[in-house]
Amino acid sequence: MIPYGRQTISEADIQAVVDVLRSDFLTQGPAVHGFENSVANYCGVQYALAVNSATSALHIACLALGVGKGDSVWTSPITFVASANCALYCGASVDFVDIDPHTYNMSVACMADKLAQAEKTGCLPKVVIPVHLCGQSCDMEAIHRLSEQYGFKIIEDASHAIGGKYRGEPIGNCRYSDITVFSFHPVKIITTGEGGMTLTNDAGLARSMQLLRSHGITREINQMTHEPDGPWYYQQIDLGFNYRLTDLQAALGLSQMQRLDEFVAIRHTLAKRYDEMLSDLPMVIPSQHSDNYSAFHLYIIRLKSEQIGKTHRDVFEALRAAGIGVNLHYIPVYLQPYYQSLGFKAGYCSEAERYYAEAISLPMFPALTAAEQDQVVNALRRAVSA
Ligand SMILES: *Cc1c(COP(=O)(O)O)cnc(C)c1O
């Protein structure tokens, strides 16, 4: 089976992890700082904090922004459940903004309408979490303008998007947001096994998230309520978690950073090749807005079902049967039973549901060979022809 995504691990990556194994620190050593500095420099952001997943990063980002009971957080329905769950962890409620029919990102027009409505009913969001689907940035300048008009904060869920650019600048610089979050799960652009990072230019938010990452404990005298009892002393001043990344993982991440641009360039070459080979088939290929240089985490096609004598499911099953590990990113979050139990109804975001009925993620990862890509396209060609 050709998977839809997989990691690329070099001998240098392996050596970097082995070096940590032979060192004094398996966690909370120098590798975490090295990795954080590397990502911060790459993105041109002030603060970068490594954590054990993007899910953890989203959680502490919401907490640092003060999300709690009675607050509302908005995100896209076409995302991994973690983008929405983070608000529920904080006791807040979640709502969804329908997607743009071309980029499949949160639609700015829908968001503007929904904000105008919410203002009338007094239920504006505290935080909005735009998700850069496939690694293509949302229209962050427009979302930022809305945030100034309506007074909400912004967390970019850039789990797909490290290495991508918006208007020529790296995603993660937080120019149009309060916090940006990356994931380093093995299918993502670079990996640490499990892992994530939260980025910000705000010293206060960075301090809060640093505390929340490790039990709410500080060893800095200027954060304590009184002089230390002695050299052993630390204080717990907030209710935090153990969301730390290990040095083993950080060393892998730092080593992977050396090839980030190369990984994304290969993804673009693969995408271009798919674009060309699929152009005569009854499907929509990924649309790229001219503001964006996508990280191309995913290559998603949409079937033109009315031109194909088979259902979406038939095509999907035929591809799987042919050894192509296609996937579907994503099931609209509010259609999940857990969200249905919160009161969301089918039909809530019509564009997202139309997308869900047609989308298929094709294999996309740097080690995908031209021969494998031909195999994917041939299987797809057979699957859509009657
Ligand atoms: C992968 C992913 C996450 C969660 O990342 P983890 O590091 O696995 O916790 C969150 N949001 C999106 C959009 C993702 O793709």
Features:
15 strands; Aspartate Aminotransferase, domain 1; 2 domains; 386 residues; 38% helix; Aspartate Aminotransferase, domain 2; seven-stranded mixed sheet; alpha/beta; globular; three-stranded antiparallel sheet; binds pyridoxal-5'-phosphate
Shape: globular
Q: Biggest β-sheet: count, sense, barrel?
A: 7 strands, mixed
Separation, N- and C-terminal Cα atoms:
24 Å
- CATH H-level name of the largest domain... which superfamily? Type I PLP-dependent aspartate aminotransferase-like (Major domain)
List how many beta strands DSSP finds: 15
**Alpha-beta content class:** alpha/beta
Major sheet strand order: 1-9-8-5-4-2-3
CATH-level-2 architecture of the largest domain? 3-Layer(aba) Sandwich
Radius of gyration: 22 Å
CATH topology of the largest domain, by name, is Aspartate Aminotransferase, domain 2
What can be said about this structure in brief?
The chain is an alpha/beta fold. 38% of the residues lie in helices and 13% in strands.
What report would you give on this structure?
The protein is of the alpha/beta class. The chain has two domains: about 1-255, Aspartate Aminotransferase, domain 2 (3-Layer(aba) Sandwich), CATH 3.40.640; about 260-385, Aspartate Aminotransferase, domain 1 (Alpha-Beta Complex), CATH 3.90.1150.10. It has 13 helices and 15 strands. The strands form four sheets. A seven-stranded mixed β-sheet has the order 1-9-8-5-4-2-3, with helices on both faces. A three-stranded antiparallel β-sheet has the order 7-6-13, with no helix packed on it. Strands 12-14-15 form a three-stranded antiparallel β-sheet, with no helix packed on it. α6 (about 140-150) links the parallel β4 (about 125-130) and β5 (about 155). It starts with 10 loop residues before the first helix and ends with a helix. Pyridoxal-5'-phosphate binds near residues 159 and 185.
